[in-house]
Amino acid sequence: MGGVAVPPLPGIAGRVEEGKVLAGAISAAVGRRPCAMFVHGEAGVGKTRLVRAVCDNAAAGGAAILWGRGVRFGAVDAPYVALIAALEGWLESAEPSERASALAAVPAAAELLPSLGGQPMRSTVRLLPVIDGLLQALVSQRPAVLVVDDVQWADLASRDAITYLVAGFRSQRLAVLTTYRDEEIAAGDPLNVWLADLIRLPSVSSLRLARMSRDETEQQLSLLLGGQADPDLVSAVVQRSDGNPYFTELLVHGLTATDQNLPADLPAELTGALLAAWHRLDDPSREVVRLLAVCGRPASVDDLVEVAAARGIDAEKVTVALVEATKNGICMAHGAELCWFRHPLLADVLNATFVPGEAVPVHAAWAEALESRTGTAIDELRRVGELAGHYEGAHDRAASLEASLRAADLARQLKALPEEAVHLRRAARLWPTVQAADARPPDGELDLLERLASVSDLVGDDEETLAAWSRSRQLVDERRDPLRASRIVREAAFAEFWTGRRSSQSFAALEHAVRLSEPFPDSAEYAAVLAELSVAHNWTAASFESAQLYADEAVRAAHRSGSHDALARAYRALAEAYERDERADAASAEALHHARLTGHPGRMLHARWARMAYLAPRRRLADIAQLDADGLRETLDEGATNVAAFHAGDLARFLLMLGRHTEADQAVRTGLTLARAATMRAVVRLAAALLAARRGDLDQARLHVQRLHELIPDLEHRPGLWAPPTLAEHLLAENRPDQALELLAHTIAVQIVRPRVADEMLMLSARAAADLADQARDRRDSDGVTRARRSLDDIVERRRELQPPAFARITSDDLITPAVEALHAAETARCLAESETSTLWAEAVRRCATAELRWDEAIASRRWAQALLSEGASKATVAVPLRSAYRLAGEMSAGPLRHEVEKLATVARIPLDEPHPSSADTLDDAPEAFGSLTRREREVLAHLVAGRTYAETAAALFISEKTVSAHVSNLLRKTGTSSRRDVAALASRLGYPSPD
């Protein structure tokens, strides 16, 4: 498995180069370079067969193969079908010791796998770490290949799991191979977005299988027919199949190597080739197979018998038909009870054989069969959902509408919001056709549309949300129902904003909503729209005084209404309007209290926003991270994936500020799995880009930034996303400070709505200008230095024209703003090449440490050490911040920063290794040469091994240099060495002292 040489693939014609690519991917995974590959092409092109052949070779080399496949079940899918099948298959074939070890490492596996009693429908997203853990436990024992065949039909949870695994690639011995059909993915299919997001990652690649050449088709025919095929037959097959291996197989079924031509009655068209085997069945069998196609998913034999009986076909003929269809390669068993097509594309072709109206009674029969069944939990949800689909196919729109609404209610009970949205969409589509003759006011349809808009918003379908609110605006009668109209106008305006239809908040729409509800001053709608108008004024910096006035009135109106929803909105607005005031503390707490009472994830999100805005400048970053972590957990439990995605991305951002990069990585992986709406995906990808840039993975960072601009073209001009600082830091990581300065200059006025963002941008401007000036000085380019300084002056002047003033403290306990200001002062001094900057950098380090800004502390520590070195400070003095920067960079896996520190340490001849005294309480485990050392002598020895000077050792151990010298003399005598270098080298060779 160490190389990429590919032995002959049994039963595979051609595909030599493709086989090498797949084998190379698996070989890379064996070498601890995990990867994913998407193998795609049209139906029947041989994707599954090729992957299976390569996996068989990998299995012979010792790799574990986990094989799962997506199965077309209809609108509602059971979660993790593909992944569960793969894991269950591995459990069945694994050695007992391997199985026991993996299950012991992941006790929660029992929650996932049916063979262990699992019921995965509860909180599906939280089972992602279980799948990940099982795979990690497996690859710790041997390399593994996870295959998901027909991923275009895989359930959403299985796709999420693939994203989660790929986003977590580090050094696992894991290859993920998936196959999908090009023609199965229509324009606008969400699978396109999922594939586009994953394929941009450096560890992911795609392999397209084209149709076979004539030579390859000839080779395939020789394998199928058991001998060399006649040239005329080869020509006929190539003409009919056009190189599709599956069509080739169908075309020659039943022929031998002696046949010279294809049967005359075979259709010439591609569809005919697919139907060839079906046409060989007798009439009753063909009809039974068509009945199965209408089902739309693998069906039980009992259900098929019932449907066939309704069409006048007895059970014996059904059995005969299934046997013949199986013999002819048309159908195959799915488990012990279900049957389906060997090539599912045939089901689509057979459905197309029905003339208009012919399939209506068949759908009715399937609906009747489903009506006689019952189920529980997810099985019942699936049954009712399919029932709705068959009723629609039977043209019984009223019954389909009723079943759709029933399925939506079941989905809500199961907290399966994506499934609820699916059924609500169908219901909304059917409602006008069912209720067209109803002359009553459209209250029922409006209720449905408002529910659809709310659910679509929670799962991240922005366009569906906007469509529902837009339709509601058309239907609502402002005179008859002004309160509902006020609510709809308000929500439609925000939907237009979040989908990019408006570049800013619509004050006109909100003010119109106020006028509609104003005659009802005690209503929840009046309080809510006042609150939203306050937030709009605050976020656009239109008028902070107006924001406060609206918020005050909103709170009074909300209390009069008694609505927890209105109170949550009003107190959120109050907290944001008085962000600089201590009133924000109580207001944000009240917003959280009432939001919890609503049980609505969206209200909770807005309330947490308000609480975070209060906590951020008050050195409460850890509290903010905890709020996001709690929000992520709670919204996952509710199934509100869109809200959960925001919490994941926001959590990652604050964890990055705290320097907790490993935890941030986990949050990013979760967010990438969950995000659906463009805004929430942008929140997550901003954090992902920043993390990648700090780790030095610039290719991945660049891909994230590219995807960000595809999602939101005017990203840097959107307030509230904190995009410019992240984009600027990425540009600095790519050594493009001039572009960073340009970006910051053009966007700082837009971002002043959040002064802390503008202050961070000002600090990054100084950093970019300093980098630019340093580069110019290295080139002896005085004009370049002047341009850098002028660029910084320009941005400083732009900031000076904005209110509030730069680095204005929000509160007396605001520790973040002073830290950012200190960084700005130090970077400005670097840009100006001032002679003494170490004091400024020392102050920046101190303030960053106090504010818990560990990333900025690491950056400033490195600059402090550099300044000290330039000013001629002693090695012992320079070593303190240099080693601190090195330690912090290591903890954050910040490769580029760590490398910069190492280069500076080399120039300064300062060792960076930390001393590691032995943790043993006795000397029993010490090498014989060191067995007689005292504890203090062992501590001194640890510092010698780390390369510390006498002065540094004395300072660390709180003893004098003279005492250190005495201990070193004892060390030399006891170990028989002649110098401190010799004793340190001896200890290193013997592995002593050992790290804690």
TrEMBL record:
Residues 926-991 form the HTH luxR-type domain. Gene3D superfamilies: P-loop containing nucleotide triphosphate hydrolases (3.40.50.300), Winged helix-like DNA-binding domain superfamily/Winged helix DNA-binding domain (1.10.10.10). Keywords: ATP-binding, Nucleotide-binding. GO terms for cellular component: cytoplasm. The keyword Cell membrane does not apply. GO terms for biological process: regulation of DNA-templated transcription. This is Regulatory LuxR family protein.
